[in-house]
Amino acid sequence: METSISSLWIQYKEKNDTEARDNLILNYAPMVKYLANRLAISLSSVVETDELISYGIEGLIDAIEKYDHKRNIKFETYAITRIRGSMIDGLRAMDWVPVSLRQKGKELEKTYAVLETRLNRAVTDQELADEMGISLDNLMVLFRELAATTIISLDDFISGDDTNNNKRFIDMLEDEAAADALDMVELAEVKNLLKNSIERLPEKEKRVVYLYYYEGLTLKEIGAVLSLSESRISQLHTKAILRLRGSLSKKKYLLR
């Protein structure tokens, strides 16, 4: 099978065989479905899995067209981020998150950043609620409402403003034959910033981030590993992402 796939890559890349390209798309299409189903688990019911698959296929086609089969990089490794990124771009275009909820999320991120800078440690839920002037119960409700909107945030833009100058990690990772030295320095700084921000997370939140983003487990699977309910894992994930985005927002100038 591996030999057959290799020959398809040669046929398409070196002989521009469109039939080989179509067969490559068919071969890797199950990966798109898997990623769509995994993303859909934690998203609002207004988002259909078929829509995610459609966006993901666009990402797959783009990945196939840009992939260099002569380099020592597995296509799956190269394509996953592009496929998922394409799904996320599609969600952004749909603008499926209510403006009011988006604003609440931004307020929470800012509050996390301000408090954790002031205290130089991870803040508690009670401290966060007190700072925002709401009850602890209302804060928990807000976390539940924001759960679906934060599931994509580690792939979201890391930027200094809301202009079209925003960049994603995947945009910076693309190699157009020669690496730009400034981009490499910026990427290293952002990676280091993200690593340090994750290290500062409370232990449970850190484990959820690791298991979800690095081990590829679903929230339900993480719940089984940590002996917690899926809703509790969702809450921990939401808090972790809000903390991270608040922390990263303090360094917006990095990618301007």
TrEMBL record:
<dbReference type="Pfam" id="PF04542">
    <property type="entry name" value="Sigma70_r2"/>
</dbReference>
<protein>
    <submittedName>
        <fullName>RNA polymerase sigma factor, FliA/WhiG</fullName>
    </submittedName>
</protein>
<dbReference type="InterPro" id="IPR012845">
    <property type="entry name" value="RNA_pol_sigma_FliA_WhiG"/>
</dbReference>
<dbReference type="GO" id="GO:0003677">
    <property type="term" value="F:DNA binding"/>
</dbReference>
<dbReference type="InterPro" id="IPR007630">
    <property type="entry name" value="RNA_pol_sigma70_r4"/>
</dbReference>
<dbReference type="InterPro" id="IPR014284">
    <property type="entry name" value="RNA_pol_sigma-70_dom"/>
</dbReference>
<keyword id="KW-0238">DNA-binding</keyword>
<dbReference type="InterPro" id="IPR013324">
    <property type="entry name" value="RNA_pol_sigma_r3/r4-like"/>
</dbReference>
<dbReference type="GO" id="GO:0016987">
    <property type="term" value="F:sigma factor activity"/>
</dbReference>
<dbReference type="InterPro" id="IPR013325">
    <property type="entry name" value="RNA_pol_sigma_r2"/>
</dbReference>
<dbReference type="Pfam" id="PF04545">
    <property type="entry name" value="Sigma70_r4"/>
</dbReference>
<dbReference type="InterPro" id="IPR007627">
    <property type="entry name" value="RNA_pol_sigma70_r2"/>
</dbReference>
<dbReference type="InterPro" id="IPR000943">
    <property type="entry name" value="RNA_pol_sigma70"/>
</dbReference>
<dbReference type="GO" id="GO:0003899">
    <property type="term" value="F:DNA-directed RNA polymerase activity"/>
</dbReference>
<keyword id="KW-0731">Sigma factor</keyword>
<keyword id="KW-0804">Transcription</keyword>
<keyword id="KW-0805">Transcription regulation</keyword>
<dbReference type="GO" id="GO:0006352">
    <property type="term" value="P:DNA-templated transcription initiation"/>
</dbReference>
<feature type="domain" description="RNA polymerase sigma-70">
    <location>
        <begin position="218"/>
        <end position="244"/>
    </location>
</feature>
